[in-house]
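Format notes (please read before filing issues)

Several people have asked whether sequences and structure tokens are stored in separate files. They are not. Every record keeps both together, in the order shown below: the sequence lines, then the token lines. Line labels are part of the format and must not be stripped during preprocessing.
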Amino acid sequence: MENTEKLRQVFAESLEIDKNKVVDSLEYNSIPEWDSVAHMSLVAAIDSAFDIMLDTDDVIDMSSFGEAKKILAKYDVEF
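Then the structure lines:
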């Protein structure tokens, strides 16, 4: 599975939303499903799916789906 699609699936499953809603402009707190508790669940799911460990600054900076892709690129995940 291509990494963008893999990340989209992780977002959809973690936030319990339709995969079609997961676009680059999807932002933290822009939908009720993406609150602080869901954010930590999402981070854990991303760590697991991509076999990485996001550092604290990256967890805080991950403010959108688009930003998540930029952050993961720092961990050698190609999009």
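For reference, the curators noted about this record: The chain has one domain: 3-73. The radius of gyration is 11 Å.
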